[in-house]
Amino acid sequence: MGFEEFYSGQDGRVCITAEQASRFAKEVAGDFNPLHNPDARRFCVPGDLLFALVLERFGLSQRMTFRFHSMVGDRTELRFKRTDEGVIVVETEGGKRCLEAETEGARTDDAAVVEKFAREYVAFSGLNFPHYLKPLFEEKGVMFNPHRPLVIYDSMAFSLDELPDQGPDVEFARGALELAGKRAVVHFEFHMKSAGAIIGAGSKKLVIGSTIAYNPQVMDETITRFNGMKASYESGL
What would the 3-class secondary structure string for 63-129 be? Predict the structure, then answer.
């Protein structure tokens, strides 16, 4: 099946519309971050879609590190390439780097394995809020500003002990939140499993642009709106 419906390509270029990006976020990742809505003032393509397209083009390696450098807007033309140093780069036609990925170890280009892993990871990643973030907010006594919920995907990395014959399952392990003034840095650790056995681990890093004091009522209202948007969207599919 792949991810062809979420982008268009010609002459080595990739173009993602706001509508395609929003559909991927909601239908594949279950991610209802308002930044991915087509009409968002600061709309950006989900980092998880770029991640999936890198895997689709360059395969799944035992060890991979992804660093996101800049947001991608509606219909931005992108190039995916590997540099002479072996780094995978996603950049605009003007040469602005949006994503870098480093790889090590063995690699598989088996399309079924690669797609299964990409979808598993993206489904895990899309559960940032409220599943993983709310408990950390409660613990630390902070939350994002619901009027400006700026949650930035900074980086992720993983290491597999072996490449599975089938795409590994991805499971949440633990989370941590550190405050840096008004900003917050969040780490989500995850395990990768095959036939029930852990065969690797990874970590995802988010940066929350601005935090406020935790307010249970406001958080509950935010989650209610989130669940309402999700239910409304899914009822229309």
Answer: EEEEEECCCCCCCCEEEEEECCCCCEEEEECCCCEEEEEEEEEEEECCHHHHHHHHHHHHHHHCCHH
Give the domain range for residue 65.
Answer: 4-228
* Segment 21-63, tens digit of pLDDT: 999 999 999 999 888 999 998 899 999 999 999 999 999 999 9
237, 27 contact by CB (below 8 A): yes
Domain-embedded: residue 185 = yes
25: CATH: 2.40.160
The 3-state DSSP class for residue 154 equals: strand
Closest CA to 199 of 117, 130, 79: 117
Going from the C-alpha of 219 to that of each of 55, 134, 135, 230, the distances in angstroms are 35, 8, 11, 16
Would you say residue 233 lies in a domain?
no
pLDDT at 154 over 70: yes
Give me 169's structure tokens.
Answer: 């399952």
State residue 1's pLDDT score: 64
Residue 167 lies in a domain: yes
